Amino acid sequence: MRAARCEPTDTTPVWIMRQAGRYLPEYMAVRSKVTFIELCKRPELAAEVTLTAREVLGVDAAILFADLLPILEPMGFDLEYLKGEGPVIHNPLQGASDVDRVKPVENVEDLGYVFDAVRRIRRDLPADIPLLGFAGAPFTLASYAIEGGGSKNYVRTKTLMMGDPGAWKALMERIVDSVARYLNAQIEAGCQAVQVFDSWAGALCPSDYRDSVAPYTKALIDRLPPDVPVINFVTGNPALLEDQVNAGGQVIGIDWRVDLAKARRVIGPQRAVQGNLDPVSIYCDLPTLRRRAADVLEAAGNQPGHIFNLGHGVHPDMNPDHVKSLAAWRDGLHVSDGSFEVIVRFLRNYAQRHQHPVNQLLHVIGLPVTFVLPFVFLSRGMGVSWALGSFFVGYVLQFAGHAVEGNDAGEVVLVKKMLGMPYIDIVERSNESSGEE
Q: Which ranges carry the Uroporphyrinogen decarboxylase (URO-D) domain (predicted)?
């Protein structure tokens, strides 16, 4: 939550899209007993797979187990999940005249099973772990309603959007009304942040997205509480980034096709960014996976406001141990790595954190006071108290330097590692996932 608000954090938070999914044995133990839609509509099961995935992976947030499409059912669409085919809508919109039969969701309790699951999850989730809700963006939901399922070219959707702006406007406004009520109800039930998935917007050219899609995403986000972070996630087309940012959201979610360092410049320092490891990286061996994850962290830079995630969801046949290993990363360094590459990365990050001349001066003074003077005192028989006093005075000087620089003090991380569990936890989870001693 602090990262979403662009506040300093001592670690880079991580959660994984589709973290409760078929790649995870604990998920399949539940899923094998019920259909997918039954799993979505039984709050006790949806809560179980949400909580289990968060706990098994050790990530920093839980995301509600649900699906984008059940919201279309109370809007008048006949939705079915077919084995091997995925979601199918049996009565898709055939043209502009069909828009009149689309009903906005007036009573969100038609989706009460979702909010019941949220309350159960929030009740059992550790207090310091946020729960993320989500919904489909207006364009993605409209595309499903028109195409009747997946599509390669979105001909019918684009034809309605381009050929009948009035009908398109009427459809999108009804979807915005419905999704706004739905997400507000998730928030009221206990979600601390929500993600809006525009999974299919990448099929659009920038002008069509700007004129016919982004205004409705913005209208949706504007109807959510301003103190609840909204993650605006678009996939498939880097050319949409600037308009995506203009559509709103405190956090901009990007996929792996976008250069993260360039994205941060476009997004600006007032908004956070989420992403953006290519999911296929998880198929690689662990050293390669770690290197690619480190590249993402390096591209994100040292400024606050980065949430580590994949550029899209986990695939069903991925190795769960590799997914778990991603949660063991903090501050761009992995404790099981001792390579020259890591040392170089550390020195580069250190240089980036000490650019202000006052910060440099305070570190020039503080470092020897911390690490040299205590030994001088001990060698002259002045006692441990003098040595400890020098040690902590030096650290105060370095803290002051970081305050002048305006970045998160690296010494905070070191002190935490010296005093307790975050460091040990990283080592243990690293060994569990990689088998390294």
A: 13-22, 132-148
